[in-house]
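Annotated sample (chain length 593).
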Amino acid sequence: MQLQWQENVKLKSALEEIQLQFQETKALQIKEPEAAKNVAGHVAVIESDAAKKVAEHSVTQEVPVFDNELMAKLKAENQELMAQVSSLEMKFDETSKLSEEWLKQALDAESKIIELKTTMQKLEERVADMQHEDQVLRQQALLNTQVSRKVSPSSSQHMENGHLDPQNSSPKRKVVTDPMKRSQSGPLQEIVDDLITCVTKNVGFDKGVPVAAITIYKCLLNWKSFESERTSVFDRLIQMIGSAIEENEDKNDHLAYWLSNTSALLFLLQRCLKGNGASGSSSQLPPAPTSFLGRMAQGFRSSSTNLAADTFRQVEAKYPALLFKQQLTAIVEKIYGIIQENLKRELVPIISSCMQASKGSKGTASQSSEESVGSSPSVSHWSSVIECLDRLLSTLKENFVPPILAQKIFTQIFSIINVDLFNSLLLREEFCTFSNGEYVKSGLVEPELWHEQATEVYTGTSQDELKHTRQAIGFLVLHDKSKITYHEITNELCPVLSAQQRYRICTRYRDDDSNTLSVSPDVISRIKVLLTDDSNVDDSNSFLLEEDLSLLFSIDDIFGAFELKDFAVAKAPAELLHHQHFPFLQEQGHASA
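Output written by the structure step:
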């Protein structure tokens, strides 16, 4: 623009000069007529020059048009470059996100590898400890067999945890003065009686810790019962717990109390007992313990008092203590199974009411009357199921049952519900209908809501156990099933169901309202091809689900459910806290306080 302005200035100056020359020429024409022709020629030259300059000025005026086109081209190229930069920036962002995701996955994989290695190490140490315990138990069983062969059949010696009572086996044998080895005489019998009388009752919990469990453990530790080769105190404790369970097998609150105490006591035994020469031996431990028992014992020891640390020290366990731990493990499993069976007996009659027979089938009169009133029978029956689950959940929480055991119980219960509902769908034709599918589907919302409200801390993934029923119901409530392809039913609608189960539900289905068809014959034939040649698809019950009666929890689950530091601050029951024969409980109570 500045160049154009300068050019305009030059042109104006030239025009002014031409005009001046023109005026001078006119004056000369007046003064000198003879020179007119020459002047005219001169004027023509001047005018020609002026015309050229004007033409140049016109060309100069057209330059901006050329600049606009160039600018437009430059702008277009600039926009294209900006688009390429933007595209590169987006690719860079995507690459950065992918890199971050890959880095996260790599870190997660590394973390899982470390976790798996740690778990494997713990399992190896656990197996080593179990093998040693098993060896001790086998050796003691063999020793008892050899001793029993030498004893006269007419003699009747008293047995203590698999051992002959030394007081009866040999009158000349000197009895060791360990207080727990005099369990058949004197004041020690009274002391054990006082302990059993106290813990037989519900002594409750202190800061969530089962009081009976920690009290029994501290007494056994103080009496050095774990290190005794002969003692009857373990037998008496097992008998006491067994009797308490058998007398109240139908009361889940009582069973939950003992499930909490026995699992806590089992945890303490596992953490603090070690077999003679086992991998957890203190003589074999380096400064930083690597064994499972060593790490856990050191990790949870309280630095507040030496007394608290001494309470949870590792001790050499003899045969009676190892046998007691095995018996206690069996009791925990037994209580778990009884609670599960109690809830099952309560739920099964209600679950059968969560199904609706098709119209015209027997037993639908009461359902029709309920529907005519405007109620929702499916939700009503499921509400009864939820009430049972709520009662058990509250009972388990009130008795501080480890959440991992609660998860396993509810997982087993939901599995039972799934088996009962699913098998009813496939066994009874009046249930394999569109209307019953809608009926059950409306009710299945209730356990899903309950699972969310109860939280996964106590229910885990128990909701997933209903997957067979949910997929079967999803098939029943589909409209126009004849358009479903083989791929859709096997991979999208019912991937969990077996070929027998898919064949059964497809061939048994009927629409009791509009009488629509099931899947196409081609789909059924393709499903039938997968069935084994030697099975009769019409009569065989291979499509039925079976209850998994195996325990869904391991003892290792219990070991991760408690922390030793919680037991360090728990107080003994008031009945024993100030008892003259239990001064160690009072000292530990003051230390924890």
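Annotation: The two ends are 92 Å apart (CA to CA).
Annotation: Residues 529 and 568 are 64 Å apart (CA to CA).
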